[in-house]
Amino acid sequence: MSARVVILGGGVSGLGMAWALAGQGVSVDVLEAEPIVGGLARTIRDDGYCLDLGPHSFFSEDEGVLRKVLALFDEPLEPSPRRVKFLYRGKYLDYPLTPRSVMQMGPGPGIRIAASALRQKLLPYRSPTMGTPVETVEDWAISSFGRHLFEEFFKPYTEQFWKVPCTELSSRSIPSNTRMSFTNTLRVLLSSATAEEDPSLVEREMLPTYYPRTGFGEVPERIAAAVRAAGGRVHVGCRALEVCGNGGGMRVVYERGGIREEMACTQVVSTIPLNALAAMLRPSPDPETLAAAQRLEYRALVVLGMVTQRQDILGCGYVYVLNRPYNRVSEMNEFSASTSPQGENTLSVEIPCFVGSPLWNAGAEEVFDLCSASLAADGLLLPGDVKRLLLARAPAAYPVYRKDYAEHLERVQGYLAQRNNVWSLGRCGELMYMDIDKCLARAFALAERILPALAVT
Ligand SMILES: Cc1cc2nc3c(=O)[nH]c(=O)nc-3n(C[C@H](O)[C@H](O)[C@H](O)COP(=O)(O)OP(=O)(O)OC[C@H]3O[C@@H](n4cnc5c(N)ncnc54)[C@H](O)[C@@H]3O)c2cc1C
Fold first, then answer.
1. How many CB atoms lie within 10 A of CB 259?
2. CA-CA distance, 449 to 268, in Å (whole number)?
3. Ligand 1: centre distance to CA 271 (Å)
4. Has residue 177 been placed in a domain?
């Protein structure tokens, strides 16, 4: 048969791949399990209210990707600065942390952080796994910044988020931008370098951000329209079940509206969680590869939107919080006032959890009951302020970097590399924390890589 690529998942990575391939005249089909495209970057729309899975904004230092995304919009998107805060013991600090935010903590915490970091420099903490692939969050945070900042910030925030002890999580769980901001902060406090600095990461924090009028989901929705305009097909409500065969004769079995259907193809690009992909391969991978895949984990996300007439609640887009049932609060009108009817606004909270947990199964009212006392205590929203609730869920939002995850990932990736006809891409497909621009850049690069093989199939 002539070349035909089936892409599993209609998030930004899958759609980006389809966009690149369809633009080159390749026959391409995207299968998306949900009724709408966008994956983690989608917007739930309900009766004039728009809720992102945590409001996203688009930014990139990659001129090519930036231009391509902005060109999807007929009316130019206006750039705006990123405005994020961290609520620390009742005080709103700049975030990511800067020397200014340590000053905002007050003199006591700033002195304690600096003293503890200085002590770490003079009497270094050592652990046998430091600097190795199994270095834990605890090893990394204490050795980089001292015990005080570890116990005051890294431990509570990390364990609240992951529900896994810091001794079990790889230090890769701490996002690069957080590492850089802490490093810079301490450099100023101690007036000497504590670690190598990557200027590109620091500059990324300062990039202008873009947000579409009616929710971030407009970005994937417009990419899907571009795929269709180039002759590609995007099928929603189609859940892939099996990827069968090898070589030129492959087929993907999927379920649409309770009916099993199948689609023949020559290559498969998957952006779904890697453990789910491994389980649906026929013939099955060897038992060791399957076992490695099953040890890869993802954390789910529940987002509750609370519609209110109150405006200017946070004074910024997002606030990260400690010791609350949720880890981040956002205000949709800070991104675009067109995300709810005039005079209204939506405050949203993000709660990481595992699929199947009581929280994952909870209804909107129950989730609100869990959060309402904290929202009121922080002066954000009283129960009487809320006129409507919206709930969104994502089963695989955060790849979990347990300290041994890299060896399992390598095993599965090694197996796929041998097959040469199934490619795993994207945040959950590669277990890689990426922003939207990186998802697109990696999708475009993979498309370039497999195009020659498609021409000769
Ligand atoms: C809370 C939060 C906030 C973020 N904020 C930003 C931000 O402001 N800016 C930014 O640039 N990035 C942000 N990101 C990162 C960004 O959302 C992700 O990197 C990006 O959306 C990942 O896209 P993806 O296509 O790789 O994966 P996903 O979006 O996970 O797409 C995978 C798709 O596969 C589908 N799927 C799963 N199983 C099957 C199956 N069996 N059959 C068919 N389909 C299936 C899923 O429904 C999903 O649509 C944020 C992420 C989170 C979690």
1. 7
2. 14
3. 9
4. yes
User: Are the C-beta atoms of 335 and 343 separated by less than 8 Å?
Assistant: no
Please give the model's pTM, rounded to 2 decimal places.
0.91
Q: Which of 436, 19, 448, 445 is nearest to 226 (CA)?
A: 19
Q: Which residues contact 234 (CB under 8 A, 6 or more apart)?
A: 10, 15, 18, 29, 30, 32, 37, 224, 227, 228
- pLDDT tens for each residue of 83-99: 888 888 788 887 766 66
CA dist., res. 124 & res. 91, Å (int): 31
Is 381 a pocket residue for ligand 1 (Cβ < 6 Å)? no
Q: Does any ligand 1 atom lie closer than 6 A to the CB of residue 56? A: yes
% pLDDT > 90, the chain: 67
Same domain, yes or no: 226 and 290: yes
Asked if 196 and 249 sit in the same domain, the reply is no
- Give how many domains the chain has, as a whole number: 3
Question: What are 330-376's pLDDT values in tens digits?
Answer: 999 999 999 999 999 999 999 999 999 999 999 999 999 999 999 99
262 and 220 both lie in a single domain: yes
CA separation for the pair 236, 36 (Å, rounded): 6
Any idea which residue has 């993000």 for tokens? 350
Q: Which residues pair with 7 in a beta bridge?
A: 30, 269
CA dihedral 135, 137, 138, 140 (to 10 degrees): 60
Identify the pLDDT of residue 116. Answer: 74
Range(s) of the domain holding residue 238: 4-39+211-295+404-456
Q: Is 11 in the pocket of ligand 1 (CB under 6 A)?
A: yes
Mutate to test the pocket of ligand 1, among 8, 12, 40, 334 (most ligand atoms within 8 A of CB): 40
Domain assignment of residue 106, yes or no: yes
Query: Residues 6 or more apart from 344 whose CB is under 8 A from it?
Result: 49, 307, 308, 309, 387
Residue that terminates a domain, selected from 205, 234, 262: 205
Torsion from C-alpha of 27, 31, 37, 41, nearest 10 degrees:
-100
Kindly tell me if the per-residue pLDDT of 200 is higher than 50: no
User: Buried b vs exposed e over 262-298: b needs ≥16 C-beta within 10 Å?
Assistant: ebebbbbbbbbbbbbbbebbeeebeeebbebbeebbb
Cα(176) to ligand 1 centroid in Å equals 19
Residue pLDDT, tens place only, 396-418: 999 999 988 999 999 999 999 99
Does the residue 238 lie in any domain? yes
Tokens of 2: 């002539």
